[in-house]
Write a structure and sequence with these properties.
single chain, mainly alpha, three-stranded antiparallel beta sheet, 44% helix
């Protein structure tokens, strides 16, 4: 009940629990809410310094691995994964797409309420247009069947449901990737059609990666990370990539420069390769034999 005990608890989370920065903030916010709203305190200063979690390098798939994962995905997730990789969407941005957000004529995708509650317009892979048109016909059949059975409309964001109570039954507000079954809305208790759960999609990606024989950890953000890295490798500038990914700070985008071999230290050639039997030329590519710069290579071959 006292701030001193709360301060000790938060300090123990940092020093003994070694929890992540997000968990530390969650605990702090919960305690501040308790002291202000329950105990009625006006000012709450727990005076705890948090331990910032270092940024981790994301896992990236090469083109062959992306293709292998797509081949092993179930049909219900395959098109969504293609769109996520082809556009670099966050998982929440992907599942929250609605019919009105995808313009097949102008090849544009509009992201509504992305991270930081920001909207943005981005490109649509042209190669996906035929599949997306065919998919829209299937979704249209689901929508019309729901209307025929008088199923309640889909959930609308924030206060729009109060402002436009019947808008959820309109075609343009339909989820682009609707779930196969109806389920209960956790907020209103209404039985309606939702989008797929992000966890189910993430599990499908992990199983597909396992079936493809990929030995790295593959999460639901792996297609997004791969999209960003492959664009950098193909010469896309960092500011353009920042806009495509929807990052507020270019420093967040800079993490992908550590993953693209052609612009990072990963592209450096090890001097050991100049000695290896299967690499007779030097890394500079000027035609000089490897033995001229690495004379010990001859001893390697002799051995």
């Amino acid at each position: 009940m006292e701030p001193e005990r709360a301060r000790e608890f938060l300090a123990a989370l940092v020093s003994e629990g070694k929890v992540s920065f997000a968990t530390q903030k969650q605990a702090l916010n919960a305690l501040v809410f308790f002291f202000k709203e329950v105990r009625g305190m006006v000012e709450v200063d727990l005076g705890v310094r948090f331990r910032k979690t270092p940024r981790r390098i994301p896992a990236v798939l090469d083109l062959r691995e992306v293709a292998a994962v797509l081949e092993n995905l179930p049909p219900t997730c395959q098109l969504a994964a293609k769109l996520q990789y082809g556009r670099g969407l966050r998982i929440r941005e992907l599942v929250n797409l609605r019919i009105k957000d995808i313009d097949l004529e102008r090849l544009q995708v509009t992201i509504r309420g992305g991270k930081g509650d920001r909207d943005r317009v981005t490109m649509l892979p042209q190669s996906l247009v035929p599949e997306l048109r065919s998919w829209k016909e299937k979704v249209r059949a689901i929508h019309e069947n729901d209307r025929a059975k008088d199923v309640p409309g889909v959930a609308l964001p924030k206060a729009l449901e109060r402002k436009w109570p019947k808008a959820g039954t309109q075609w343009k507000w339909m989820w682009f990737f609707p779930s196969e079954k109806l389920s209960e809305d956790p907020d209103s208790g209404i039985i309606r059609r939702h989008h797929p759960h992000p966890g189910s999609y993430g599990n499908a990606l992990r199983e597909a990666a396992k079936a493809a024989g990929i030995e790295r950890r593959v999460t639901s953000h792996a297609p997004r990370h791969s999209f960003a890295t492959h664009l950098l490798e193909n010469g896309t500038d960092i500011r353009t990539l920042q806009e495509l990914l929807g990052h507020a700070d270019v420093l967040t985008t800079m993490i992908y420069t550590h993953l693209a071999p052609n612009i990072s230290h990963c592209g450096a050639r090890s001097p050991l390769d100049g000695m290896a039997p299967g690499i007779p030329r030097n890394p500079g590519g000027d035609g000089e034999p490897a033995e001229a710069r690495w004379p010990h290579g001859a001893l390697w071959r002799a051995a």
